[in-house]
Every structure is written in structure tokens, then in C-alpha cells.
Amino acid sequence: MSTGQQLIRERTERTEWFLKDRFGMFIHWGLYAIPARGEWVRSTEQLSIEDYQPYFDEFDPVDYDPKAWAKAAKQAGMKYAVLTAKHHDGFCLFDSKLTEYKATNTKAGRDLVSEFLEAFRAEGLKVGLYYSLIDWYHEDYPAYGDRIHPMRNNEAFKRDPATFDRYLAYMHGQIRELLTDYGKLDVMWFDFSYDDMRKDKWKSEELMEMIRSLQPHIIIDNRLEGSGHQGGSIYTDNPTTYAGDFASPEQIIPPGGVKDQHGNPIPWEACITLNNNWGYAAADHTYKNAQTVIRKLVECVSKNGNMLLNVGPDAKGAIPKESLDILQEVGEWMSRNGASIYGCQASEFPKPDWGRYTQSGNKLYAHVMEESIGPINLVGLAGKVKRARLLADGSELFLTRPWSAEEFVADAFVNFARPEHFTFPLPDNR
Ligand code: FHN
């Protein structure tokens, strides 16, 4: 077996739970919740470290209750969660020994990551941490002429690029801390490579050797090498050791899902915001409704993908009510229809014009999303589907009478069983 084939086999083993769980919570939280204008505020508003310091001095998340976060995630039907341990501003939510710029040195006075991990594990969810490769605080991070870090002209970096080696030692050291001091992690979510800042620039080979030695089971995204769902060797027969275990489309669902060079599906996860910001943005009320979230989740799974749905807690540590209300409604739907998501994947049948299919073994799930005139047209299923059940209440559906969309609002599923299970007349209109 070639090295590439070995790496792909290991990736397949590692991601088995991931492809079953399908639905997770992304959590972007940090000092930027105080200005409440999104997690890029330091860059977009060209704030100096001094301008940003008051947020460090004031950070006091008195309402931080990770147990409540975990319950909300579980009730929503989420099976795993990923929290920002450090975002681009360099502020660490964990008690790193390598910096003073951390939550334990703020009025919070606590290791926010440790409490998050404990609370979500207690609810039975798998846990992951997001770690920013970019660092706007660390003095040795390159800034001069750097597109992503325009606000600082790092003279030291201009004189001696070796300063970046000091940053990499810090970065690798913090990742070692997270993989050593916080128990079993299920996901490491790196973010993000750009321009020529990728691959060996992060010393990725060395980093992956360390990661695999400490937590061999952990799955990582493709952003040490690629960008979102493009670029990188994850699509090839010869992935690098740092190609990642899943591709990470952001704010989009690729039309055909994500496939390798042969057209075979590879693991992927679309990360999506509820409004238009990852970090808390008090003025952004452009929230998607629950039906849209459900349709996005169904679309991901119908294309062999996962969805990582983001919440941005406020400066006091509370998830916005608008987000909680959506999660509540999604959870009600998932409680009735989770069988059509968990453990499901793309169907062998072509997408119908009225919605989407997901499939798990010999169970076909029809997600009827468009109002039909007359009977639902089961094109391509003639002779294959014998009986239909409404997932929400198990009631039998006769395949011959016209189905109105009211009966199939987005939370309705018709659970088609394959021939070997039932004999049942197909619609006369097929
Ligand atoms: O710059 C970040 C952004 O703040 C956010 O964390 C997203 C989430 O995937 N990733 C980067 C943008 O691609």
C-alpha cells in the first residue's frame, strides 16, 4: 500500500464518527465580543494593540455557562462542537503557559476552554478546538506587507525572517499544550492558510508529527495546506500528512459536494453563520430562520457533507437569544427527523425536483421542500419504492393520492423503504 493510500485509509477510519454525526456547533468567542462588531474588528478598524487593550482589561464574562451552551447544542441535535481557543487577535481562551494574553489573566480568571470541554463532554458531544495560525498580537508574526495583517509594520521581521521561527515555536508549543493538557480532543480546526503562508511555512510536517503522536485519532481540517474547499492535496491520491481529514467550505455548500480527483466523495464540512458574523455583532440581526438552517443541513447531508453551525456568544458569555430560538426550532425538527440526517449520505437516486434525498443503507429519505401540483413525482423510483411513512409521526402515506405541500412542510419526511422491505403500489402517475 502506498503512503498516499495509507494516509487515505487512516483518514477514512478517523472520520467514521464525523460522517455519522453530520451536525456540529461552531463557537466564535473572545475579546472581540466587547466591541461587538465581529471578530475581525481589530483589523477592519485598524486598531492598535493599545486601542484593543481596554477589551482585555474589561473582559469579564459573568454569564459564561458552558453547561447551558452544551444543553442548547444537544437540544438542537448537534453531535459535536468546536470552540475558538485562539482567534486571529491572539487572545487565548485557555491557560497557556506561553503567553500572558489569556483569559486567566482577565477578570474572567478562569480557563474558558477547560470548562467548555468538560461541559460538552458531559452532554455526550464530541469536542474540538479552533486555533488561528494567524496572530495579530504576537510580536514575531510577520506583518510587513502582509495582506492579512496590514496594521503592523513588523520591522524585526523585515530585518530577520528568523523571527517567524520564534512565532512558529510559540504556535506549535500552544498546540502541544492543547493536545496535552486538555484530555481527548476529537477535532483540531486550524484557520487559515493564505497567499504563500501555507504548508511548510507553518512547519506543517513537523506539526502533524506532533499532533499524531499526541492524539492519533483526532481529525483536522484542510487549512494547513488548502483554503476552504479548494486547493491542497486532500483531493489527490497522494495527500500530504497535513492535507487534513476534511475539506472546509465556508458559507457555501459546494454544488456537487466535495470530491477527490476521481470524483469520489471525501469528507467535508460546511461552516455557516446564523447571521452574517462569526463573532458577536450586536447590530447584525440578519439571522437565517430555522427552515433555512434545516434546508442547508439537508443539502449538506444530501451531498455527503457535514454542517458546522456557528454561534457568537456576547461579551458576558451568553449565546444571543435570536440564535437560541433558531437552535430550539431546529432541535424540534431534528427530534422528529434526525434519522434522515444522522448516518445518512447522498442517495443513489437522482435529486428530485421537489426537494432532496438522503439515504442510509436501504432507507431512503425524501425531503419534500417544494409545493407540488398533483402527486409528488417519484421519477427514477418506479418499481423501487413500495411504501412511504411520514417520519414525523410514522403515519402511512399512500403513494397514489396527490400530496399537498402543506402536508410536507420542510419538517416532513417520507421514509421510503426499498423493495426488499415492502410491497406497495407506486403512484399511478409514475
Ligand atoms: O478569518 C476567519 C474568520 O474570522 C472565521 O473564523 C472563519 C470561520 O471559518 N474563518 C476565517 C475566514 O475564512
UniProtKB/TrEMBL annotation:
<feature type="domain" description="Glycoside hydrolase family 29 N-terminal">
    <location>
        <begin position="12"/>
        <end position="338"/>
    </location>
</feature>
<dbReference type="InterPro" id="IPR017853">
    <property type="entry name" value="GH"/>
</dbReference>
<comment type="function">
    <text>Alpha-L-fucosidase is responsible for hydrolyzing the alpha-1,6-linked fucose joined to the reducing-end N-acetylglucosamine of the carbohydrate moieties of glycoproteins.</text>
</comment>
<keyword id="KW-0326">Glycosidase</keyword>
<keyword id="KW-0378">Hydrolase</keyword>
<keyword id="KW-0732">Signal</keyword>
<dbReference type="InterPro" id="IPR057739">
    <property type="entry name" value="Glyco_hydro_29_N"/>
</dbReference>
<dbReference type="InterPro" id="IPR016286">
    <property type="entry name" value="FUC_metazoa-typ"/>
</dbReference>
<dbReference type="Pfam" id="PF01120">
    <property type="entry name" value="Alpha_L_fucos"/>
</dbReference>
<comment type="similarity">
    <text>Belongs to the glycosyl hydrolase 29 family.</text>
</comment>
<protein>
    <recommendedName>
        <fullName>alpha-L-fucosidase</fullName>
        <ecNumber>3.2.1.51</ecNumber>
    </recommendedName>
</protein>
<dbReference type="InterPro" id="IPR000933">
    <property type="entry name" value="Glyco_hydro_29"/>
</dbReference>
